[in-house]
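Re: beginner question about structure tokens

> Can someone show what the tokenized structure looks like for a real chain? I only ever see the sequence side.

Sure, here's an example I had lying around. Input first:
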Amino acid sequence: MHPVRAVVEKNTNNATVNSWTMKNIKLYILLFLCLSAHVSQAQVSITEEPAISRAMNDFQYQNQQSQTVTGWRIMIISTNDRRKSEAAKLKFDEMHPEMTSYWEQDVPFYKVTVGAFENKDALQGLLLELKRDFSSAIPVVDQIQKSELVP
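And the corresponding structure tokens:
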């Protein structure tokens, strides 16, 4: 029998690969952090087209010049009997002297509206109160002077 000689060497290839991979990962993390810091300091610039700027300026100018807005009133009565509409207006004026009521004729009807609200939600409390005395009261859209709006 012949003796067999075995040489055992330490395998360092895996260690070298792992070391190289760890160095790359650290390098990528460092690169990512540097880029993130750079991006967070970047500024965004938006350029508006001249036509858009002119349109917005015209809109703002017209809005400032206009003394009326589209808003809401409560119509307490709409009837073809003038005396009924006048009686409803008088009754409302006695109940709410602090509020203005408006009487208008829209042939063949006579209408009485009250209040001046910017949105429909704002009139709901008054509408519920008025329904007790004016069962046909409903919200209606109207052009309202800005100075009339109920706060």
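Each token stands for a local structural state, so reading them left to right follows the chain. The radius of gyration is 39 Å.
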